[in-house]
Amino acid sequence: MPLAWVLISCEPGRERDVYVHLLSMPTVSEVSVVYGELDLVARIDFDDEKEMSKTLIVEMRTVEGIRKTETLIAVEV
User: Which domain holds residue 18?
Assistant: First the structure.
């Protein structure tokens, strides 16, 4: 099953709102609060590339409180 890690920077004070919203999304399997330049790291599991595109391009971009994301798509070596 394909997976990606999404590194998230939130608007100040919106971290909890974003955290709760992400956990309600069916493709998000876990979310962690982190310290440093980033605020959250989310693990996204997909059934196929179409679902991945929909989640990353459509759903993640509509979450209020997210300022910036960086997506790391995992691959097998």
Answer: 3-73
